[in-house]
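Tutorial sheet, problem 5. The two components below are modelled jointly, 622 residues in total.
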Amino acid sequence: MKLNKLNKVMGAFFENLVSVRLTAILLFILIPVVIVGSLIPQGRAFSEYVHAYGLKTAEIFYRLYLTAIFQSPGFLILIVLLGMNVLGCFIKSLAEKKRSLGFILIHVSLILLIVGGMVSAVWRTRGELILEEGQTATSFESNKKMISLGFEIRLKDFELQNYENQGRKLLVFTQDRKKPYALAFRQGIWMAIPGTSFQCRVEKSVLDFRHDTQTGEVFSASGKPVNPAIQVHVKGKDTDYTQWVFSNFADFHGKNENALIFQYVWAPEIPKAFISHVEILENGEVVEERTIKVNHPLRYKGFSIYQASYDSREQKWTGLEVVKDPGVGIIYASIILMMLGLAMNIYIEPILKKKKPTSK
Amino acid sequence: MTESNLLSIAFFLYVASLVPYVRIFFKKTTRLDKVASFLVLAGFLLHTAALAIRWKAAGHAPLSNMYESLSFFSWAFVLAFLVSNFFLKIQRLGFFIMICNVAILVYAFAHDSTILPLMPALQSNWLLIHVSACFLSYGAFAISFVASLIYLLPLPKKNFSLDQLDEIMYKTILFGFPLLTFGVATGAIWANEAWGRYWSWDPKETWSLVTWLIYALYLHLRLMKAWSAKKLAWVTLGGFLSVIFTYVGVNYLLAGLHSYAQ
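Model answer (structure tokens):
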């Protein structure tokens, strides 16, 4: 009797597990869970949640895993259940020989997608490398473990390319020329002014110039370009002075008695490319010279190395992200199968069915 | 002719099509059908030319900022209308579709149309593939949205069969779903090429998944035949609201990797 009951319960369980109804129920649960995960910032420090929502709410968020929903046991259970449901439907359809090739491909791809995601979650290694020009690295830290690259990578040079004729410019008028010299805007670097013995350096730049009359300090009142200005330091024979140059008020200083007249043209810089020129070394010998750009990672010995950040002030260092993810291949395979399956199921099979003469 | 002139003429043709479409909504007239179709088709061709000119001038697909994407969304919406009309005969939805389309273009005109060079993250062939696939699916979903609205609103239905509206919702979602899947999938591949992670739960990614899940739910519910067409129309409506939030809402309310979409 007991065995019969158990059989019935198990039968009902499996029947539900392979039902479209369970798929719909799981999707119903998954949708609000994912929405909550997008509305509450994920993976931040506890103090940030306290600051944003208050202590009590932050504690509730933590207890309910709302700050790391996509890594929570509840989310994992949902995904595993969905995977089992898809697998069950797939096996059932094979057993009953009911389903089309498109259906089979879609469901295999979904299973692969979940497997690929799990492989990535467990075996992916990822870490950051900050390299200064000339510096070499042989390993990186991932999940508090040092991972050896198996080769050396050295930063030869970091290059920031901006689009020409965009961005900030410093124009210099000299006494003997009506047309100004246009200097590329580089803060903190001495630039020679062509045709003169002078050189200049941009010491400071502010977007919204304010002057504290009591302390004499200059600061930016906001992060918006309301009143952009730069402080220029000029050096030459018997000359050494600094002056503020305003983008909106070119004639702010009135009649300028200096030999040089500056004009500051403010416009947002538009970067064209962030390029890390690197060398790959093995046994101390350079075996390859490569460049790493956004959208063009370096792949070497199973590692993919991405352009992630850079020294925005002096372009002396680069931030690279090193990744080894065995799940990527599975994910790509699942994408190909899913697209083939959807195309078959939705676009091709209905057309083929229509073309087939219907038997009476 | 400049891109802006062509787009303006296309806009006026779309607006002009509203006149015959009002009449068509209340009464089927073959003569006005042709006039309305001609106006929309002419507008669409000029719109296509405007996009092509901008593409040539910019040197990249016109999909890199809000103005360009809205213009492309409008184009995809009209394309979806023309294709759906060919297969499903949805001329009577024309008035509502063109009203929505005109609204999209008005919103586009409110944005800066200056052509700016591409930032490094967008310099990839995936820009065209990923973004165009997403917007072509949005175009199809927009048609299903209009059908669901007419289904749910207390409008005179003498010229519509509810079954026909249900069929339009189903067929357009069925057409758009693989395109959305392709759009999300190519986005994942692109993200892996650019940042080394195919999925990072960025708000745009997460909301595109929400949209995908809602339409997947719709298709499963319809397969089960357990839900009434009216309830399915509500799901369709929810799906398109999710599309809009993914496209516009996320840019302004949730910060993430897609911040250049503003």
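Marking note: Chain B has a mean pLDDT of 92. Full credit if you identified this.
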